[in-house]
Every structure is written in structure tokens, then in C-alpha cells.
Design brief:
Layout (H helix, E strand, L loop, with lengths): L1 H158 L1
């Protein structure tokens, strides 16, 4: 009976040990499961953080690309405006050059016209003076001829 009691005691002790081991094993399993869950959550958090960082970097890179594109477009626009401005300045310079040429030509034509008028006036004055002189010479000539005729008539009357 003592042996049976000892056997029973050993059996109980073994059952208690097994229950203790089982409880420890379950505790370890739960702790490991908890650690695994915590690690998975940390990993998930790190992954989410990395994903956020990557998304932020991607957004920054896209914003930089958009800004570079905008700057290139603005630079192209400014270059086109500058080209048009140079073209306009060239056209204005050409128009000014032509205006000055026209002005110079007009001044030259006016000067030539004035000179022509002065020459014509001088010729007219000279011609009028020549005509006056000719009239006077003709008149004097006629007076001389008339005087000679009258002398001849007087002489002729005296002779008769």
C-alpha cells in the first residue's frame, strides 16, 4: 500500500510537473505569440513609416520635377518674349532708319526744289533785266532813228 501510495504520489507529482510544464509551455507560447505580434506590429509600423517616407520622397521628387518643368516652360516663354522683343526692336530700328532716309530724301528734294526756284527766279530776273535793256536800246534806237528822220526832213526842207 505504501508502494501504491508512493506510486500514486509519483503519478500526482508527475501530473503536477506535466501541468507545470504545460503551463510554462503555454506561458512561453503566449509570450512568444505576444512578442511575435509586437514584433509584427513594430515591423508593420516600420513598414508604414518607410512607406510614408518613400511616399514623401516620391511626392518631393514629383514636386521638384513639376517645378523644373514649370521653370523650363517659364524660361522658354521668357526666351520667346526676349526673341520677340529683339525682333520688335530690330523692326523699330529699321522703321526709324527708313524714316530718317525718307526725311533726308525729303530734305534733299526740298533743297533741290528751293535751288531750282532760286535759279528760275534769278533767270527770270535776268531775263526781265535783259528785256528792259533791250526795250531801252530799242526805244533809244527808235528815238535816234526818229531824230535822224527829223534832221533829214529839216535838211531836205532847207535844201529846197
Amino acid at each position: 500500500m505504501a508502494q501504491l501510495a508512493l506510486k500514486e504520489e509519483l503519478k500526482k507529482q508527475k501530473q503536477m510537473e506535466e501541468a507545470t510544464y504545460l503551463a510554462l509551455w503555454e506561458e512561453d507560447r503566449l509570450a512568444k505569440e505576444k512578442r511575435d505580434m509586437e514584433e509584427a506590429q513594430k515591423r508593420s509600423g516600420r513598414n508604414a513609416d518607410m512607406l510614408n517616407v518613400l511616399n514623401t520622397q516620391r511626392a518631393v521628387a514629383e514636386a521638384q520635377r513639376q517645378e523644373e518643368k514649370r521653370l523650363k516652360e517659364e524660361e522658354a516663354k521668357l526666351m520667346e518674349e526676349e526673341r520677340l522683343l529683339f525682333k520688335l526692336e530690330d523692326e523699330r530700328a529699321e522703321m526709324e532708319r527708313r524714316r530718317k532716309l525718307r526725311e533726308c530724301r525729303d530734305m534733299l528734294l526740298d533743297s533741290m526744289e528751293e535751288k531750282r526756284k532760286r535759279l528760275n527766279e534769278a533767270k527770270q530776273e535776268e531775263l526781265a533785266l535783259d528785256m528792259k535793256i533791250l526795250d531801252r536800246i530799242l526805244q533809244e534806237s527808235q528815238e535816234d532813228t526818229e531824230g535822224q528822220k527829223q534832221r533829214k526832213v529839216r535838211l531836205f526842207q532847207l535844201v529846197q
